[in-house]
User: Which sequence fits this backbone?
């Protein structure tokens, strides 16, 4: 027998009360944990993928769409921009680096991105097998792509027009896998990378037809910079890194007002996205906090009522040698045991629910959503909940501490 | 052994009772008589260290009870004073055995299941060890509280109206047990009662009405 066993026996003597309090506490904690897990993973993911990109320049349209399409590869592009214009802009002295992107095709739902080796360096991706592309129509696939499609070096495939599955195939030109990237936990895992000229070639099949059976042609700018294109050549967008913070001040305004292109900042747009989502998340968090507070209140009420009936028990324990402090701890422990059990329940429920939700949403693998990770904030939530448990049992515990043994025993 | 010196205390509605000197030796039994409201319970609580007197000294063995700090007194009580009340206040959330183990734990003694079994068997409750307290009859419950009071081999046993809510047969049993066990443990026994059935069983009597 010890204080924990004693408190536990009292809790066990009222199982329904315990269940209600535990469920309330568990539910509140679970909701908060789900929100924390989802938003922290999403935020993590979004910030990792926009690292090193100060500005995205593309066709006019929604700036958020521009970012989603060209940085996160989830939305459709806003359109195309002229290669010449892009090249001209890239010579601006405020710009340190530009990476051109050409989107438009997919293979079984994985986007084919025309770009150069700088893009791979931007995400610090490593080659697991083979090498990066050099020739037109050579591709390198991300780790998730390779895993899902069971791709090997040397495989050939036809891209499909558009960015989602089941569009028309370009069955004239086949891509050729020359490399597979290591898993990088960024958006690059889900991409198929190639030269910009390859993307052009697939679309302009009339002119390039003779190349199909010919010798592979080396790309004109596969490591860095812009490919050689005619005056009609277009790309989808370019990712820009500033040379100095001054760029952030003048470039977007200059591009938006003086060119046919649009500039959008990933940092600003994701922040905007989060502030939109944030209202909902905050509302749900407040709701969960209210549940936790009600759980605390419920623990308080059941302890308070129970202790009214237990005054004699407490007096007897004192007469058996228990000090005031022991009784105080005994009552606090009751609140703490219930909240800790509720916390464990909430922890399991929260992670289980997140994993379940991640399983429901097929894109969650791409984003890397899972219920099996731990975030530091969780410990804080559980700590606060235990704090609420202590707070809820504080007044009953003080009453227990102050029990006047003689008076209680004389009143029988 | 328990000694009272110059004790004076207030009880119901500010009546004051004074006891200049009283000594109950080892193995001695004292019956404290008086109608309800005569201060019996208050006196017993003072002797048990549950309630500080207005003035005076209570010594058990060598220890001046009210010189101890609150926590020390709680512990001293747990180890040296066995208390029995009119109603059997047992912890209903616990089994018979756990009630007794709790008494050892709260008094800061080693928890000894063998000792618990021994005491329960002495009181004819060996069978009920694992039972929930709720399953026992009134008489059995009162016997468990006696077992609990004896468990830590106290020097003093204080019983406040131990027979008041029992029928003749059980009252007889409880008094016999208290007497024999107090003798067995060489403890001083004080019983406060207004129960006529108990009166003739004790030689040494203190009538509070005449103090």
Assistant:
């Amino acid at each position: 027998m010890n204080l924990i066993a004693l408190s536990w026996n009292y809790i066990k003597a009222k199982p329904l009360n315990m269940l209600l309090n535990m469920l309330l506490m568990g539910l509140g904690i679970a909701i908060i944990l789900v929100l924390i897990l989802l938003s922290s993973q999403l935020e993590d993911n979004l910030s990792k993928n926009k690292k090193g990109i100060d500005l995205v320049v593309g066709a006019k349209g929604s700036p958020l769409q521009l970012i989603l399409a060209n940085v996160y590869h989830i939305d459709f592009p806003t359109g195309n921009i002229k290669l010449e214009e892009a090249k001209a802009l890239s010579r601006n002295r405020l710009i340190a680096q530009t990476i051109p992107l050409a989107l438009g095709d997919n293979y079984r739902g994985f986007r084919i991105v025309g770009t150069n080796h700088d893009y791979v360096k931007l995400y610090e991706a490593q080659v697991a097998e083979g090498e990066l592309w050099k020739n037109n129509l050579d591709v390198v696939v991300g780790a998730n792509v390779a895993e899902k499609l069971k791709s090997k070096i040397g495989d050939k495939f036809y891209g499909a027009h558009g960015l989602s599955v089941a569009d028309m195939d370009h069955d004239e030109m086949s891509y050729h896998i020359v490399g597979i990237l290591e898993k990088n936990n960024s958006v690059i895992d889900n991409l198929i990378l190639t030269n910009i000229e390859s993307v052009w070639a697939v679309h302009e099949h009339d002119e390039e037809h003779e190349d199909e059976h010919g010798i592979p042609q080396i790309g004109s700018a596969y490591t860095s910079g812009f490919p050689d294109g005619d005056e009609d050549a277009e790309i989808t967008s370019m990712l820009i890194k500033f040379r100095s913070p001054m760029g952030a001040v003048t470039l977007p305004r200059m591009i938006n007002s003086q060119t046919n292109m649009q500039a959008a900042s990933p940092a600003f747009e994701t922040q905007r996205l989060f502030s939109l989502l944030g209202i909902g998340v905050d509302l749900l968090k407040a709701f969960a906090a209210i549940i936790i507070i009600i759980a605390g209140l419920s623990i308080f009420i059941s302890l308070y009522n129970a202790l009214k009936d237990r005054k004699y028990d407490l007096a007897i324990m004192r007469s058996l040698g228990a000090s005031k402090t022991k009784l105080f701890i005994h009552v606090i422990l009751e609140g703490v045991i219930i909240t800790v059990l509720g916390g464990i329940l909430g922890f399991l429920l929260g992670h289980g629910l997140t994993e379940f939700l991640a399983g429901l949403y097929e894109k969650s693998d791409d984003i890397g959503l899972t219920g099996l990770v731990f975030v530091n904030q969780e410990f804080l939530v559980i700590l606060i909940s235990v704090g609420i448990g202590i707070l809820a049992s504080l007044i009953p515990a003080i009453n227990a501490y102050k029990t006047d043994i003689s008076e209680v025993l004389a009143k029988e | 052994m328990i000694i009272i010196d110059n004790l004076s205390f207030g009880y119901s509605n500010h009546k004051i009772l004074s006891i200049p000197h009283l000594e109950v030796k080892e193995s001695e039994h004292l019956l404290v008589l008086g109608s309800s409201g005569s201060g019996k319970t208050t006196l017993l609580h003072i002797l048990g260290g549950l309630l500080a007197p207005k003035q005076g000294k209570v010594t058990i063995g060598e220890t001046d009870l009210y010189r101890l700090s609150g926590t020390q007194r709680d512990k001293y009580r747990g180890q040296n004073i066995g208390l029995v009340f009119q109603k059997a206040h047992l912890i209903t959330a616990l089994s018979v055995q756990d009630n007794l183990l709790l008494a050892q734990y709260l008094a800061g003694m080693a928890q000894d299941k063998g000792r618990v079994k021994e005491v329960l068997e002495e009181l004819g409750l060996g069978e009920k060890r694992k039972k929930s307290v709720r399953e026992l009859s009134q008489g059995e419950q009162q016997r468990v509280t006696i077992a609990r009071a004896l468990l830590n081999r106290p020097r003093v046993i204080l019983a406040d109206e131990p027979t008041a809510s029992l029928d003749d047969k059980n009252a007889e049993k409880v008094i016999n047990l208290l007497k024999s066990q107090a003798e067995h443990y060489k403890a001083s026994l004080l019983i406060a009662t207004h129960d006529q059935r108990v009166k003739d069983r004790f030689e040494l009597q203190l009538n509070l009405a005449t103090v």
User: Anything to note?
Assistant: Residues 144 and 150 of chain A are 9 Å apart (CA to CA). Chain A touches chain B at residues 1-2, 6, 9-10, 12-13, 312-313, 315-326, 405-406, 409-410, 412 (CB under 8 Å).
